[in-house]
Specification:
Blueprint: E1 4-8, E2 15-19, E3 23-28, E4 34-38, E5 43-46, H1 50-54, H2 63-73
Antiparallel strand pairs: 1-2, 3-4, 4-5
């Protein structure tokens, strides 16, 4: 099931409904609003702020979270032999 959200498009100057399944990245801008990067390479600039999109994240991950996961993996990595064809 697709997830749609209404956003205020800067380029179009009106509200548009966007399919969030097509969004691959949301980047907040220092001037306010966000850039939405779509899977087909298009970029939308919207007036809506980052927290609107952050609510759709299943879990936010910080660099500290990633570092902790890497530490847990050390010692658990197994070298696999790749068969030759």
């Amino acid at each position: 099931m697709a997830l749609f959200v209404e956003v205020q498009s800067v380029e179009k100057g009106c509200k548009v409904v966007l399919n969030m399944d097509e969004v691959v990245e949301v980047a907040p801008m220092s001037t306010g609003g966000c850039h939405l990067f779509l899977s087909d390479g298009r970029i939308y600039k919207v007036k809506d702020n980052y927290p609107l999109f952050q609510q759709f994240a299943m879990q936010t991950v910080s660099s500290d979270d990633i570092a902790n996961q890497v530490k847990k993996l050390k010692g658990k990595v197994v070298d696999l032999e790749i068969p030759k064809l």
